[in-house]
Amino acid sequence: MWRVSAEPLLRRPGPLVKCGAAVGGRVAEAPLLEARSQSFWRGHIRWRNKDCDHESGNIARFLGTLLTLRHPDQFDVKVRHLEARKRIWTNATALHATKCKDGAAKYPFRIDGLDGLVQRLSEAQDVSWVNPVDYARYKILAHFPGGTTGSYSRNLNHLWATGSTVMIWDHPAQEHYYAGLEEGRTHLVFNATTAVEVAKQITDNYRLARRLREGAADVQRELVCADCLHGFLLETLKAFRAHFSTNLALDDVETARATLKGVECGDFVEYVSHGVVEKVPPSNVKAGPGEDQSCVDLVAAAFAPS
Questions:
Q1: How is domain 15-222 classified at the CATH fold level?
Q2: d(C-alpha 199, C-alpha 34), whole Å
């Protein structure tokens, strides 16, 4: 289903905004000094491709579970589901043989005691569901790339509102707001080698932890809030409009109909008018030669008098 809008779409709170508001309400119930000191994460391992370039963060998440097995007092990093190529994750020989790498780690599976760790992998699985608001019960929230449907860093996007500190696995993926992040102020970066020391920095240094909490709150307030996302999308659309001169094609009824001539608009079934989602109604305007009636109805609805 496609949605066409004559005004910004992000006026209504989406899942990210609602989650942030709910989590924010729980923060006061879990002050930093009383929160659990383990670094927390939940997600999935889903490697459905054989190509290393499409491993989608699964290696990082797997290495995260090994942190739990090696340092259970510091890490509560567990997967709810271990899917698809499950056998490879419990086969140390196969892991050693893979040529896949994790970021800067050329050989991520050359770990002392790997054979024993993978045999205990079930200890790093937890099928129970953890509500997003309960993330605020942890002093440190870890982020690993991928693993949450909808966005490569969708998991990260809701961590900023929890009142916890944030640790981000070292990975090259970028979201639009990453330029506003600053290591040491909004978060700390870690990998399989540095994870223990980075977590210890946070738990042993209250001033650092407080600075990171405040920086994370700034990210929520200034970069991923509802108005922030709305503003970013609006500026992006303005940039597209200027670059492609869409005003020459879509700014009035005649040019819009001419632009859509030869296009089938049957999949465009809704539009937004004054903040309200409306079904595209049939119009009294008849399609001309080369026009699709659905396109004519869409244009008529978009330019209907308010």
A1: Rossmann fold (3.40.50)
A2: 17
